[in-house]
Amino acid sequence: MLTVDFDRLGLRPGDRVLDMGAGAGRHSFEMYRRGADVIALDQDADELSGVRDLFVAMKEAGEVPEGAEADVKEGDALALPFADGEFDRIVCAEVLEHIAADVEAIKELVRVLRPGGTMAITVPRWLPEVINWKLSADYHNAPGGHIRIYTDHELIDKVTKAGRPNDGTDGDAMIFEGKDYAHGLHSPYWWLKCAVGVNNDKHPLVKAYHHVLVWDIMKTKGWSTLTRGAEKALNPVIGKSMVLYFRKPA
């Protein structure tokens, strides 16, 4: 289940790419499959172990182009263990809404992105997220849960200003290049979960809806055309994730 459009990001074989907050590695795997040199960074060592194992399995199965490399790195978003300008592309998917010091995390992302490089940041979209919060306090009041709801204007402002010097002098800001929405089918699913209890996965409606999402992800014949068409229509209206694309001035 990918959120980022890698063609829009400008990903090319041989690019050095950081997947910051990689989690289970969904974006890392696709970038590796496309021939990128991928670093999956996260704080969860157990998740990273699984990501590393799948990197190895992908290479052994011949699923990646010759010369592509991938590795994992345990680290802190507020102090990325990389040199300035080390990456051609950065993906930061569904991470910033969990971080209290989000501006500091954004500055670190900008720091390790090379001049002329591109970055995709995804966060929960404002309207679907507001509905989730109103339906259930348990949805976000959990350890490591969501601590803020972004508007597009707020996040664009934070990212575009992140490249400017701290001393107040003029400097090149990050360039906002566009916005997209994804996972329109997932918003009603989470509204339903919040309404019946976030952890009530055995509720018949929740189970039924979950089956639809699984069919969509697995591209089951027959269902895939129907569900993909529905999601494409819903994304601009209630897409659960907002995707913002940026470029660092050359």
UniProtKB/TrEMBL annotation:
Methyltransferase type domain span:
18-121
Listed GO biological process terms: methylation
Q: Which GO terms describe its molecular function?
A: S-adenosylmethionine-dependent methyltransferase activity
Q: Which InterPro entries match?
A: Methyltransf_11 (IPR013216), SAM-dependent_MTases_sf (IPR029063)
User: Does the record's keyword annotation contain Transferase?
Assistant: yes
**One Pfam family this sequence matches:** Methyltransf_11
Task: Name the keywords, alphabetized.
Answer: Methyltransferase, Transferase
Under PANTHER family, the record lists: METHYLTRANSFERASE
Q: What is this protein called?
A: Class I SAM-dependent methyltransferase
Q: Identify the species of origin.
A: Nocardioides cavernaquae
